[in-house]
Amino acid sequence: MGSWDPVISVAGLLVGIVVGLTGMGGGALMTPVLIFLFGVSPLAAVSSDVVASFFMKPIGGLVHLRRGSVHLQMVAWLCVGSVPAAFVGVLLLRVTGRHGFLQRNLPLALGVVLLIAAAATTLKAYLKLRQRSQHRADDRPAAPATPLPGVPVRRAATVAVGAVGGLAVGLTSVGAGSVMMVCLLFLYPTLNVTRLVGTDLVQAVPLVGSAAIGHLFLGDFRLGLTTSVLIGAIPGVWLGARVSSRTSGILVRRALAVVMLSSGVKLLGVPTGWVAVAAAAAIVVGGGGWAWLRMQHGEDPFVWQHRRRARTAAAAPAPKISAVRGIAGRQAQG
C-alpha cells in the first residue's frame, strides 16, 4: 500500500473520534481493522499504527492541556516507566521476528492484550457502580472529584503502570489508552474520567514517540499506510477530544469494550461465526446483566432513565417558603 487509501482514511476518522473521546481505542481498534479488513500483516499494522498514533495523541492532549484537565506531575512519572519500556518492546519484536516466530505469535499476543483490556474496562465500571452504592448506603453524597493539585502521585506504582503500558505498546500498539487508562482509574479513584483521559493522552505522546522511533528503524513501517490513517485520524481525534471535555462517553466506552472483546477473540483464531456469537452475547446478555447489576445496587437499569429522573427533579419548582411555613404551622396546631 504505497499510496493514499480513502477507505483507510475513513476508518482512521472513526478510530480517531473514539481516541479523542475516551483516551482509548487507538491500537485496540486500528490495528485489528488493518489486519482483518485490509489484509495488512500484523507487524506492518503495529508499526504503522504506532507511528500514526504519535501524530494523533498530541491533538487530543492539546485540547485537554488548554482546559487544565492534565496532571502534569503524573505524566512525568508515567513517562519514566513507559518511554524506555516501549523501546524495549520494539526490541523484543525484532528479536522474536526470526524464523517466522513473530508472524505466528504477534496476533496471539495482541488478542490476549485486547481481552485483558476489555475485562479491565468492564471491571472498572463495576467498581465505580459499587462505590456509588456504598456512598448511598452510608447516606452520604458521592465524593467530589479531587482538584488536580490536591492529588499526590504514587510514584512507584505510577512508574510500574507506565512500564507495563509502554511494553504493551511497543509489542502490540495497544495499551497507551486502554490498559493504562484502566490502571490509572484504579490507582487514582478520586480523579474524574475527563482528567484521567487528558492525563493519559498527554503522557501517551512521549510513550508512543519512543515506540514510533523503534518501529521506524526496527519494524515494518509503511508511509502510504500511515498517511492514509492520519488523514482521517487527526481531525477525528480533535473532534472526539472536544466532545470528551463535555461528556462522560459512557456508551462509547461500552461499545469499545465489545469491540475489544470481539477483536481479541478473532485474533486468538476463533472462527468468525463464533466471534459474532460472542459479540451478540456481550451486547444482549452483558447489557441485560449490567442492567440487573444496576438495579441490585439501587440504580435505574439504564443510564438514560437515571438522567431523565435527574432532569425531572431539577425542573420541578421548589415549594415556596411561605407555603411550607403555613403547612408546618397547621401541623403544629394539630
Explain this structure to me?
- This protein has 334 residues and is an all-alpha fold.
- It has one domain (6-251).
- Helices cover 78% and strands 0% of the residues.
- The protein has helices at residues 6-22, 26-36, 42-66, 72-96, 101-137, 155-172, 178-187, 193-218, 223-244, 250-267, 272-296, 303-315, 321-333.
- Helix 4 packs parallel to helix 8 (193-218) and helix 6 (155-172) runs antiparallel to helix 7 (178-187).
- The longest helix has 37 residues, at 101-137.
- It starts with 5 loop residues before the first helix and ends with a helix.
Count of discrete alpha- or pi-helical segments spanning 4 or more residues: 13
Compute the CA-based radius of gyration.
23 Å
Calculate the terminal CA-CA distance, rounded to whole Å. Answer: 86 Å
Shape descriptor:
globular
E-strand count? 0
Element-level helix/strand string: HHHHHHHHHHHHH
- Roughly how much helix do the residues carry, as a percent range? over 70%
The major β-sheet equals: none
Going by helix content, strand content and strand pairing, the class is mainly alpha
β-strand amount: under 5%
Which spans have pLDDT < 50 for at least 5 consecutive residues?
Answer: 319-334
Number of domains: 1
Mean pLDDT: 78
For this entry, what is the oligomeric state of its chains? single chain
